[in-house]
């Protein structure tokens, strides 16, 4: 490769040389994808969607901060965290498509499903900033709660019956633990900071708190697969208590967000924010099917 | 050269001072019946360089005369910076990037929370001082953080432990 000409290295190369992330290849080449006989195929498909959608939707939310964060380092941090989650989402949605066996790949599942087909929890989708009504402190409160829950969930999924999900969890766990530390350090810094930062951190925690209950409410699919999230609660409560103690914050009163006839994100019933989020996430792919850059 | 030797010389696209073998990403190279099967493992789930790594391996092996090359991905066990070789650590430091500390075996059970950044004594790759502080927990790539040396005042990158 010659560097005499700045453009020299760009010609006569495979597409991937133009920029990282162009023309994505299928992300699990050669990974053993047999579905274990002990796992129900429909349930595993639904569960992969739940996990994949949690990661995809929060990645989208975090990416909205790019160029809007209070400092440059935080722009980089939030984009990196979003990238980790997007990587997990790609693997999980690819697995979902494989298990379903109807020929849908990660793009079909991310871009061509409607709101009612998404299975993420509400915490991932709600508006926490940078748009009006949100705040950086609220985003950190959400990230703390989300990543503390995911660390507990992935920790247990390392022993899950499906080897692909177990591998994604084992790898993702290390990433999520770093995200959790990052959020926790910000919650302490803001909560234990000035009266202004403390008040905004307190408001952020109050904003996300109603969405906590859903994280520990098992769906029938989860119960059948033996991955009821209810027992994760004590680990998550312990982490949050430790952070709040250091931050000088108190746990808000538990007032769970309303469900629609007992249904929420895992049933495809979403908050008003979800439609807007999907419009932004999906519109290029739907307007220009198959477009790559 | 054997396929293993060719694959072992392919540089990492983001840290070109290291080979994929130094980084611990190259897991296995099997040559059988004129066919080469290479197994690599991603560093971070979202690392965008993983496809570039596969493309570089295929290109280098083809150029060395191996026409039939397949690159496979292995997710388990998950990559850890402990797999960066001693040689890789020396190359990183020589390039001005502080290598990661060795983590050793991880304890089972819940992952402990770090409310304050762990006080790892990361040596400045320029002057060797351990009076360094973290500037940013995330750097130019997913695998690096940014630090500064209090003695020589230079900022430098640090491959963070995972």
From TrEMBL, chain A:
One of its GO terms (cellular component) is cytosol. Gene3D superfamilies: 1.20.1260.10. This is Ring-1,2-phenylacetyl-CoA epoxidase subunit PaaC. NCBIfam families: PA_CoA_Oxy3. Transmembrane segments: none annotated. SUPFAM superfamilies: Ferritin-like. One of its GO terms (biological process) is phenylacetate catabolic process.
UniProtKB/TrEMBL annotation, chain B:
Residues 117-160 form the PaaD zinc beta ribbon domain. It comes from the Bacteria. Residues 8-71 form the MIP18 family-like domain. PANTHER family: 1,2-PHENYLACETYL-COA EPOXIDASE, SUBUNIT D-RELATED, FE-S PROTEIN MATURATION AUXILIARY FACTOR YITW. This is Ring-1,2-phenylacetyl-CoA epoxidase subunit PaaD. It comes from Saccharothrix australiensis. The lineage of its organism: Bacteria, Bacillati, Actinomycetota, Actinomycetes, Pseudonocardiales.
